[in-house]
Design goal:
Blueprint (H helix, E strand, L loop, with lengths): L2 H8 L4 H19 L4 H25 L27 H25 L4 H16 L5 H4 L2 H22 L10 H16 L3 H6 L5 H5 L1 H22 L2 H14 L6 H27 L1
Amino acid sequence: MSLRHWIQASRPLAQANLAAPTLLGQALAYQATGRFSGALLGALFAWTVLDQLVIVWANDYADRDHDIGGSAKTPFSGGSGVLVEGKIRPRTLRAAALVAYGLLLALGVGLALTRTVWALPLTLAAGALLWAYSFPPLRLSYRGGGEHLQGLGVGVVLPLLGYAVQAGTLAGFPWLALVPTYLLAVAGNVATALPDVGADRKARKRTWPVRYGPHKSRWLCLALTVAGLGAVSAFGNAIAAMIATAPLILALRLGRGRPAVVRFIVLQGAATQLALLAWAAFIVF
């Protein structure tokens, strides 16, 4: 067990999914209040890093009995591979996830005491959504509905947290802004489930690619992403939505096979991140 193994388990690419909606929430707070704190930006970045570690480590542990490894794994799916490859012991990863959540909870309490009471319930909500996603008795990523939990966690909790911490309140939050963030987060879940369809079928995991097939699910994912960008244009910034269509147009070349699926995930993710970050940038600058 080495630092390299822990970096693999931490899946650094996952940070983009958490950082962008949190930054958007902070930009919306700046738009509402005209104030912005670099120290709070740093605290929220620490929050998203801890949340990422809790998510990826806990999900690896929860899925340890059916995760795939080797050549079937991609940077976006199949788990990190550290458990199936024997690089980290399951109980060690579970303990690390619990420590990370303890630190996340402590940071949430600190932000609740010093900045906004909303920091604590939103931190608790993030933990509850993860539990419902991966662990009994709900384990909705297996029963069906995991994509909507990701929509709530990434597309609702994170923008609200960013706004509340920077603004010190949720008063004045533009609630319609959660429509595009929710839709794009759900689409992201569907996209990253595409390469896992074989292993998920064996595990009876009711993801969209398992239920509807990978080809149809890609079209559904594209439709959700287009709807999300339309909502960005309607409730946020039309130019940001237009910028984000470039990778989405490339994603229309669906193709078949694992390289095409990985390319699709990258392009769909790029469209989502561009939309949220460009929206935030237009607010601030």
